[in-house]
């Protein structure tokens, strides 16, 4: 979803892959940009990102069918920055899947 507005609003959250409270890592490699709903789903382990930068969705929840279903993101590749040094760290993504993501 893209939202353009003439006033200065932001619809994207900066999401820590490993929570800052555990890692004290505030670097770009420990972050991804998500909308607020997906940020909360990521923090609660309902979604994760695999080693090929594709979204994985937990089987531990149900939702109504709609255009904005979290399940619609299953298997989709995330949009990566143009510069590789800004990619999310794969080890951090592994940590998230091992410690937060719910199978």
Q: How many E-type strands?
A: 4
Strand content: 5-15%
Rounded to an integer, what's the Rg over CA atoms?
Answer: 14 Å
Amount of helix: 10-25%
Mean pLDDT: 93
Largest sheet strand order: 1-2
Count of domains:
1
Shape: globular
Distance between the termini: 27 Å
Order of helices and strands: EHEHEEH
| Number of helices, where a helix is a run of at least 4 consecutive DSSP H or I residues | 3
The main pleated sheet reads as: 2 strands, antiparallel
Task: Give me the secondary-structure category.
Answer: alpha+beta
Task: Give the low-confidence spans.
Answer: none
Task: Give a written overview of the molecule.
This protein is an alpha+beta fold. It has one domain. Helices cover 21% and strands 14% of the residues. It contains three helices and four strands; from the N terminus they run E-H-E-H-E-E-H. It has helices spanning 20-23, 36-43, 90-99; strands at 13-16, 31-34, 47-49, 55-57. Strands 1-2 form a two-stranded antiparallel ribbon. The longest helix has 10 residues, at 90-99.
Mind sketching the topology for me?
Elements: E1 13-16, H1 20-23, E2 31-34, H2 36-43, E3 47-49, E4 55-57, H3 90-99
Key traits:
single chain, two-stranded antiparallel sheet, alpha+beta, 21% helix, globular, 4 strands, 103 residues
Give a short overview.
With about 100 residues, the chain is α+β, with helices and mostly antiparallel strands. The chain has 3 helices and 4 strands; from the N terminus they run βαβαββα.
């Amino acid at each position: 979803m893209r939202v353009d507005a003439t006033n200065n609003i932001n619809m994207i959250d900066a999401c820590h892959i490993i929570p800052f409270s555990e890692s004290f890592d505030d670097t770009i490699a420990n972050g991804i940009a998500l909308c607020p709903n997906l940020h909360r789903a990521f923090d609660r382990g309902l979604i994760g990102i695999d080693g090929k930068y594709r979204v994985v969705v937990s089987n531990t929840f149900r939702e109504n069918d709609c255009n904005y279903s979290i399940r619609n993101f299953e298997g989709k590749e995330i949009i990566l920055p143009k510069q590789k040094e800004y990619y999310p760290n794969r080890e951090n993504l592994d940590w998230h899947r091992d410690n937060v993501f719910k199978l």
